[in-house]
Structure formats: C-alpha cells, structure tokens
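Researcher: For the annotation table, I need structure tokens for Phosphoribosylamine--glycine ligase. Please keep the output clean. Sequence:
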Amino acid sequence: MKVLIVGNGGREHALAWKLGMSPKVTKVFVAPGNAGTAIDATNVNIPVSDKAAIVKFAQDNEIALAVVGPEAPLVDGLVDDLENAGILTFGPSAAAAELEGSKVFCKNMLHTANIPTANYRAFRGGDDAMRYIKERYPEPGESAYVVVKADGLAAGKGVIVCSTNTEAFDAIQRICGDREFGDAGNELVIEERLIGQEASVLAITDGETIITLPAAQDHKPAYDGDKGPNTGGMGAYCPTPLIDEDMMQRVEEDVLVPIVHAMKRARRPFKGVLYAGLMMTAAGPKVLEFNVRFGDPECQPLLMRLKSDLFDILCAAARGRLSEIDSLEWDERPSLCVVMASEGYPGSYESGRKITGLDAADAIDDVKVFHAGTKMENGNVVNAGGRVLGVTAMGDSISLAKLQAYKAVKEIRWPGAWCRKDISDKAR
C-alpha cells in the first residue's frame, strides 16, 4: 500500500523512515519533502499549501493513507479535503486543529474542561493589553513575570517570556504594533509565567481511545542553559525522568481524557496526535499549550524507539478503531535528538551552504540523521531552513545516547552550523 506524507521537516522525514519499515507499505511519498526524504522515500514537488494538488495526487496514486505533518495545513483544513475525497487520512479536522491554531481558543477550552493551566487574559488589540500591564505593574521597570503569546500560528516563535513590564510592553508592541508575526497577532494572550521544567506528552487518539506515548523533553530556547529566544525546538530526548508512571497517569486523567471529552462535547471530535506541552510545577503539571501533531523534534527520538508498526497504528486511529491495537512495543533504550541550525536562526540566515559529513554521521552505531531544512542543489545537500538537521541517537542510558548523538554532530559541517551542547543535561 502507498502512503503520502505532507510536509518537509524533520518530523516528516522521521515519519517517512518509520512508515517505510512497515511490511504493508510498498511506497512512501513526501510532499514536498527534503534532501533526506528523497533518500528514504519519494519526494513530490507539491507545496503543503496547495490543497487541491495534494488531493489530486492522492487520488491519482491510490494513496492508502495520508499523514499531514505540520500544523499550518491541519489548521487550513487539508484533512477535511482529503477525507471528503475518500482518502483515509491521519490528523485532526480544521475545527479540531483550532486547539493549536488559536491560543485563545485553547485557553478557553482548558478553562471549560477544568484542566490545570496558567491564569490568563485574552485581548483583541494592543491598547487593551498595554493598559492591562500598566494597571497591574505601574512602576517603571517593575518585575512582571508574564508570558505574551500571539494567538495564531507563528512557527513556534510567537511566545515571548517576560520578566519586567518593559519587556511585556515590548512584546505587545512586536505582536500587535510591529505585526512581527503577521495575522497570528490579531489577538494575544497574556498569562502568568509558570515556574518549573517543561515536558511533552504526546498521545494518539481517534476521539474515543487514547494511546499515550513515552514522555519527552523539548529544548525550545536557542542557547545552552535555556538562554535566548524561543525556537521551534533545539533538541529533545525520550523518555524524561520528569514523568514517571504515577505522573503519567495523572496527566492522562487530568489533561488528556478531559480535553478529548471536551472537544467531543464541543462537536469538534479530535483524531490524530494530541501533544500536551506541560510545565511541571510545585502544584503539579499545568498545560502550557496543546499542539495537534507530532512535535518536531520530539517525533524523531520517539519514532527511533518505536518497535510497533506505525502504519497499523495510524490507520487504526484514522478509521476510529484504535481500541483494536495491541499495546505498543518500545525499545527500552532512551533516545536523543540534537538539532543543528543555520547561523542566525531563529532570526535571518543564509541558505545554500553545502553540508558535508552526513554519511559519516549516519554510519555511527544507533544514529539516524533526520533532515529538516535541506535540499539538493547541484548534486550537493545544502541548508534550506533555520533548523537543518535532527541528529538522533540511542544508547543504553541517556548519557550514552547523548554521547552518540554529539559524536555524529562532530562529523557534520557547513559554514555557520551550530547547535546546543546541553540537550538532556536536565535529566541528571
């Protein structure tokens, strides 16, 4: 059977690689893909925004399962279009994807479902938001531990963590005044800044049954020690000691089950990957956000460990028959992903720089280099995005997985390449 994956990031490369291992899958297409998916699958030159062309390709090629990777086409309703055309598709409808597409909607759903989260206020414009900060923190330069979030999709960059009212004013100006994140800033959320470590719990659901995946820990700030601006994620490891069995049960009971039920009651039944971004506070886990797809880079270490047939799992979820799936099998060894990025990311960066050492890195035991922002140019692999590669490794312990991953990182070179050096250090 043939599979179509929509997207061109590290997540989509990992999905193509793992789905290609299924004995039931004869061919994997990726639209539009990258230089890595061109090796492990077949690229199709269709942008993720061209819904009509994607649907036509799926029909013409008798696709047995379509998997929509990124958030933008999910929010834009690509799953609805594929399903209306008779294509079995894994992913949420546009109505369900609003859980990620609108932070205001998400916070309101959390409140409705009585799910623990930070206190918040939503605003439709910058003037009211500025007035709110001035009223609560009137003194010049006063401490203001808040987080200002653009409402819509901003590629992981629309969340600004503030420590003073000056920083909060600046964040509101960037979102509403400067329109740094475009229409994503039509509304914004200001919420209390929670203290603790972050963890990611992903679950696959068909709207009734929920299969929770091992917890991971993402590293969103750009630089070592969680310094610098937020990014789409600079690395992740799995599992994380932050979430033991008892805590996982608490997350399932207090977060995952309530939101699935709440979405069903709201007539937005959720099918696909439900990603809970959690802050592990002294009062227990609180939801920072929900994503409606596999995380990138969390997907890479998760799928490295998965031993069950991913094709069977995703098909069952798409058909509403997830209850028929056996318990998932996992490699007991932990895994770790280090994101290598372009010079200047998460700001502006230059593309087209030749990447070397990929074969040497992939040849290291228990290592897989997943491509994200890459493309082929004149026979060479070059960088074509901010986050370029997800160097992923396994080991008998988290520290050994880290050792293997960074050993592979050292083999890879291009002008300006960089990465965080402390992925997984929080696990100590």
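Researcher: And a one-line annotation?
Model: The radius of gyration is 21 Å.
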